[in-house]
Amino acid sequence: MTTAITSQNKPLSNRIQAVDLLRGAVMVLMAIDHVRVYSGMPAGGPEPGIFFTRWVTHFCVPAFVFLAGTSAFLYGNKLDDRHKLSRFLLIRGLLLVVLELTVIRFCWTFNFNYSQFMLAGVIWMLGWCMVLMALFVRLRPLTIGIAGLLVMFGQQLFHFVPLILPQGWRGHFGWFWEFIYPSDGDWLPGINILYVIVPWIGVMMAGYGFGTILLKQNDERRKICLRLGIVAIVIFIIAAIAVNYWGPVYKGDKPFLFRILDQRKYPASQLYLLMTLGPLIALVPFANRAKGWLADIFITFGRVPLFYYLLHILLIHLLALDLNYVRERNIHQDWYATAPYTEIAPEHRWGLPMLYLVFIIAEVILYLVCRYYARYKAAHLENKILKYL
Fold first, then answer.
1. To 5 degrees, how large is the angle CA 313–CA 316–CA 317?
2. What pLDDT shows up at residue 168?
């Protein structure tokens, strides 16, 4: 059994606040990037406004996956039954995979031709990581956390797995391994792999191990989080500068700061993970003590993450069609048939002011709906289905 929470380390509410608040904050950032998709604006670029509109959203997936692991640990600690936790993760993980291939795929595209375009996106990846975690939670949290760090920082080793197989096996095995880690194999026709399993399963495992830190007393927890976060940030800065100066010769005209911050996301590099997870961990003590209306908004979103995710894609897509019609008397649904992969001519793009206006409108609507759902969910704890949403 996982260690039950004792009376002396009982301030669980503020720990849950930290997880919910940070998760809610990155979900808001995530919405910026998804509005950007429908606006037609490129994913980054030399202009500071466009670059940082994309860069701030880099914190979303690492935080979401890491905190999913932390939440799994805290939920298991509450249950005090690893078998129940394993069953919960298995069911929820498979639910996420199904939702990615059906509801989420449709909300992105409004395209019923599923044979033409399928996406192995972030919810797909999150679901399979939970399925794997259903097996791993039988191990000690410390063991899981250390193994997660090894996966994160040794991820390139997974590239060579298909290469050690007999030649005859590679053709049958290569397509499957492309879902695990890029290995120069062939994808299945019609499926676009946006998020592979590695290193993200390592991030979730590390988040699970991090949950043990949240059970410590306030002062000790604060010191550990600050030290871990600051060390990760310092390592990132030193390593990123070193790679920039002594790594492969850079060809381009990006400013030095942009080159430091523009780390590889697909698959997420070690520097990318240090850049995003370091600040997240360092912010945990501050998130525990946060008060006020903004904190309440983030906490509301963070308590209903899947509900928010499902709703925000549908809402942003509808707002995009409405705005296109107001601007051009045409909804231009054809632009989004393979969203989030969109190609919109520059003269039809919204621009940053309109992008952020649509984002604010979407967040106001999402808050009102999510607040109602969070209250409904809290008032109906006996409904076992709601815990999966």
1. 85
2. 65
